[in-house]
Amino acid sequence: MTRLAVVLTEAFADWEVGQLTASARTEFGFDVVTATPGGAEVRSMGGLRVTPDTAAEALRAEAFDGLVLCGGMIWETEKAPDLKPVIDEFMARGKLVAGICAATLALAKAGALNNAAHTSNALRFIADLPGYCGHAHYKDASAAVRDGMLVTAPGSAPTTFAAEIYRALNFRNEDLDQYLLMFGAEHQPKAA
């Protein structure tokens, strides 16, 4: 069974991992484990309370197929958790590492974006962060960007974020294709 560790923080952005977690668990049978800083209960931007399965700092790469960081307001503050050791371990073991919206700040600070194609909300959003020197690899994209086992996305791209995570994990079937078509339909050009 595929296992994903999904890190949520206080005031996490509900929409950014909702499609991924719901489809992974319900449609495709993944084990989705939620983790928060210190294992504390968190509340989303929309007010949903989440009691996590574990502490984010306790995540170990050998127990998971991937690490997913959900965006939220905390990543832009001094209260942002330092997950560099966790990110480094997942990357060193060749596991999926993914971040959307402001969670790309954590990846940038950890140096995870320095040598791989990536995106974020904008280059200026991550450009001056300590630990980040991946400017030449930045892609100004409205959809998720995948480079091997690294997936990044702006906050406006939860559908392609989910899609690229599935692709990185080599998870493809007719159900996934239909799911992605359904949730991405609003972004398809209209027939003339």
TrEMBL record:
Keywords from the UniProt entry: Hydrolase, Protease
GO cellular component: cytoplasm
A GO term for molecular function: peptidase activity
Record-linked SUPFAM superfamilies: Class I glutamine amidotransferase-like
Domain DJ-1/PfpI: 3-166
One Gene Ontology term from the biological process aspect of the record: proteolysis
Protein name (record): Putative intracellular protease/amidase
The organism of origin for this protein: Rhizobium azibense
Lineage of origin: Bacteria, Pseudomonadati, Pseudomonadota, Alphaproteobacteria, Hyphomicrobiales
